């Protein structure tokens, strides 16, 4: 708090408009905590980026020579077999690729070590410069009283700052914690003094007094590591006879490097400023929770930071007084992710996806493991922490079934598309486009928008019917976003050799990774269904989704069993199980479409459990109908019917969520509408299966 705020606090508190502040509800993943995660991810990415370039400068020639030797040895050892030559090259070059990944990760470790050093050194440096004299006894007594009331074990010592200190701040932790006050607060008494002490102790209660120095240490940790690569290049230019330092740095590569480094610095600064603003809100709420707002209204209604433009708001490390008062009066206003939050999270998630995919490819080189799920689930976890938890908190606080507006879904997708073009691991190859080719610029944002819509639907459903723990929210959102990113990567990989329908089939029901996606769909369905089975308050008629499920199952199963297909005439068992799996997918898709038609975007939440149940039971019914024809029936049920059908449903739900999440929510109260809707569900399911039966080999990929 600044000196001008302290002077305003000396005025009598106004009774008009004096309200009581709600008690704050934070947790380990509060808005500020989630932003700390974003900042740490940015630092790690910057370190890996610089480490990769340093590897090329220092070890690039030895890497190239060793790789060429592997190729030569493969041709000499296996002259007659291309397959054996390729296998040998993969095994031979594996250690080289892993060494490159380790050097990149060493850059990440260097950034984190510098950041940790800043956490220790920067506050001590400021303490020596700013702290001058212990405040009078009344300030110490006030701090002890507030600390005891708020549960702080060790009361901070109040100290007067140097002449250049303009605002109060808190340093240290435990017995070494100090509140540094500017001299302008010397004459402050009463509620104004208590408000300021409460605010500073609120920072201690929020638990970020030490970690906040990571935002101050961005310049100490990020910039030196990013400058390491051009410095190494200049040294190499000085050492090599055929070039000079300026000749090395004049290469166009360094223009790309500089642009990417600037993007990382801008992201880090934006996130750091967002942390600074949100921690002020959390300190205000911790200080004023359950108490009268009169002191804060007197403090913040006076002169203070004015309303700023977009650039000024992004650069500010303190929120405006009006914004602070608005959050004190209604803490829900700080929970919903802002457009700036969404832009940063989407951009950073795409950068993380590309970087982790590249590093995982190096680490797994020469093995049978796939790098796509590693990058997808890592970026999905970041989206879950940075965006999904915020949406859930906002919906839970409002208790009215609302969640993030569809505009934020679009912003998240577009920022992810921009993040794909940053390509830290692809510096110097920008002309090649994003990872997995140019189609990913369309496919991945669409997948992110669909996952965001499903995440919001999940948050709406839980906000009305249950209160899950943060671990449940993070797990479900990680599966939603990580699964969506994984599907997008696989689809674009298959698109390089197949048509769009076949690529969708190989990414869905015929995917080699179908078992993982089936498990993810099942976990999400169970978590969402639990919110309906065990609600904390009444929420609408639950029998409607049940009737929709039943109609889709009965109609799809009957249509499949009672009609014949020309594709099954040859008696190929592969065709039979694929038709069964696609029939089950049709049942789930029709069920989801019916719920969307009945309730708009609100139906997405019910589709998260209703569609998988329809698909699961339809696949089981068709398996049971052919039980005697399988040599290992239970293995067939798990690995063919359930795995393939739920994996295909995952792709279908993701596609449906893109337009479904943009639709408004509605619910008809006319009694005839549900009856007609259930009837139309049965008709649509039967019709979809009949079309499937007579589609020939178009969807069977034999």
Description:
The chain is mainly α and 702 residues long. The protein is built from 24 helices and 4 strands. It has helices at residues 3-9, 31-77, 82-130, 137-150, 190-206, 213-216, 218-239, 245-249, 253-288, 294-300, 310-315, 321-329, 339-363, 372-398, 406-420, 440-465, 470-495, 500-507, 514-533, 543-562, 573-599, 603-625, 633-662, 672-693, and strands at residues 131-134, 157-161, 169-171, 178-181. Strands 1-2-4-3 form a 4-stranded mixed beta sheet. Helix 14 packs parallel to helix 16 (440-465). It starts with a helix and ends in a 9-residue tail after the last helix. Residues 1-18 and 536-540 have low confidence and may be disordered.
Give a brief outline of the structure.
Helices cover 70% and strands 2% of the residues. The chain contains 24 helices and four strands.
Proportion in helices: over 70%
Give a count of the beta strands, DSSP E runs of length 2 or more: 4
**Distance, first to last CA:** 70 Å
Mean pLDDT: 84
Strand adjacency order, main sheet: 1-2-4-3
Order of helices and strands: HHHEHEEEHHHHHHHHHHHHHHHHHHHH
Cα radius of gyration in angstroms: 30 Å
Indicate the overall shape. Answer: flat
Beta percentage is: under 5%
Question: Could you list the spans in which at least 5 consecutive residues all have pLDDT below 50?
Answer: 1-18, 536-540
Name the structural class.
mainly alpha
């Amino acid at each position: 708090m600044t000196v001008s705020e302290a002077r305003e606090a000396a005025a009598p508190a106004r009774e008009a408009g004096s309200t009581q502040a709600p008690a704050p509800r934070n947790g380990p993943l509060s808005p500020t905590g989630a932003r700390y995660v974003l900042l740490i991810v940015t630092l790690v990415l910057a370190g890996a980026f610089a480490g990769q370039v340093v590897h090329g400068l220092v070890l690039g020639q030895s890497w190239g020579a060793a790789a060429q030797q592997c190729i030569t040895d493969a041709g000499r050892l296996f002259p007659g077999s291309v397959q054996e030559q390729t296998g040998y090259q993969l095994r031979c070059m594996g250690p080289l690729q892993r060494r490159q990944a380790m050097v990149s990760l060493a850059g990440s470790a260097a950034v984190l070590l510098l950041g940790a050093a800043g956490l220790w050194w920067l506050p001590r440096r400021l303490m020596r410069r700013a702290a001058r004299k212990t405040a009078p006894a009344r300030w110490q007594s006030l701090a002890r009283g507030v600390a005891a009331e708020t549960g702080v074990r060790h009361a901070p010592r109040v100290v007067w700052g140097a002449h250049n200190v303009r605002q109060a701040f808190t340093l240290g932790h435990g017995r070494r914690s100090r509140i540094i006050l500017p001299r302008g607060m010397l004459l402050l008494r009463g509620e104004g003094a208590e408000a300021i002490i409460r605010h500073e102790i609120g920072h201690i209660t929020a638990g970020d007094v030490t970690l906040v120095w990571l935002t101050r240490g961005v310049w100490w940790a990020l910039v030196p590591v990013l400058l390491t690569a051009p410095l190494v290049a200049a040294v190499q230019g000085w050492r090599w006879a055929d070039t000079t330092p300026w000749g090395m740095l004049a290469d166009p590569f360094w223009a790309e490097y500089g642009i990417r480094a600037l993007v990382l610095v801008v992201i880090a600064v934006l996130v750091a400023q967002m942390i600074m603003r949100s921690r002020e809100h959390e300190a205000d709420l911790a200080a004023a929770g359950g108490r009268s707002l009169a002191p804060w209204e007197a403090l913040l209604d006076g002169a203070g930071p004015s309303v700023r433009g977009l650039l000024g708001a992004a650069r500010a490390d303190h929120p405006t007084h009006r914004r602070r008062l608005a959050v004190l009066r209604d803490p829900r206003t700080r929970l919903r992710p802002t457009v700036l939050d969404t832009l940063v999270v989407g951009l950073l998630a795409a950068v993380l996806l590309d970087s982790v995919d590249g590093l995982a490819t190096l680490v797994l080189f020469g093995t049978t493991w796939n790098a796509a799920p590693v990058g997808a689930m890592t970026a999905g976890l970041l989206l879950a922490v940075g965006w999904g938890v915020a949406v859930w908190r906002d919906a839970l606080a409002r208790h009215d079934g609302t969640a993030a507006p569809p505009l934020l879904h679009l912003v998240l997708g577009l920022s992810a598309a921009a993040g794909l073009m940053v390509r830290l691991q692809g510096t110097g190859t920008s002309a090649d486009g994003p990872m997995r080719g140019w189609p990913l610029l369309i496919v991945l944002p669409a997948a992110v928008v669909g996952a965001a819509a499903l995440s919001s639907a999940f948050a709406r459903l839980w906000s009305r019917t249950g209160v899950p723990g943060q671990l449940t929210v993070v797990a479900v959102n990680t599966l939603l976003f990580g699964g969506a990113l994984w599907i997008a990567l696989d689809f674009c990989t298959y698109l390089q050799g197949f048509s769009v329908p076949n690529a969708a089939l190989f990414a869905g029901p015929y995917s080699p990774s179908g078992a993982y996606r089936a498990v993810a769909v099942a976990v999400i369905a169970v978590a969402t269904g639990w919110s309906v089975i065990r609600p904390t308050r009444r929420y609408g008629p639950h029998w409607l989704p049940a009737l929709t499920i039943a109609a889709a199952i009965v109609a799809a199963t009957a249509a499949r069993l009672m009609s014949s297909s020309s594709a099954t005439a040859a008696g190929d068992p592969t065709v039979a199980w694929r038709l069964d799996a696609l029939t089950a997918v049709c049942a789930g898709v029709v069920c989801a479409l019916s719920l969307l038609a009945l309730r708009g975007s609100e139906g997405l939440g019910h589709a998260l459990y209703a569609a998988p149940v329809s698909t699961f039971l339809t696949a089981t019914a068709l398996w049971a109908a052919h039980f005697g024809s399988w040599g290992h029936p239970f293995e067939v049920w798990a690995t063919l019917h359930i795995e393939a059908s739920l994996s295909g449903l995952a792709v279908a739900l993701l596609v449906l969520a893109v337009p479904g999440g943009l639709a408004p929510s509605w619910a008809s109260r006319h009694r005839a509408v549900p009856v007609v809707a259930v009837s139309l569900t049965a008709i649509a399911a039967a019709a979809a299966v009949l079309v499937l039966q007579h589609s020939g080999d178009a969807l069977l990929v034999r």
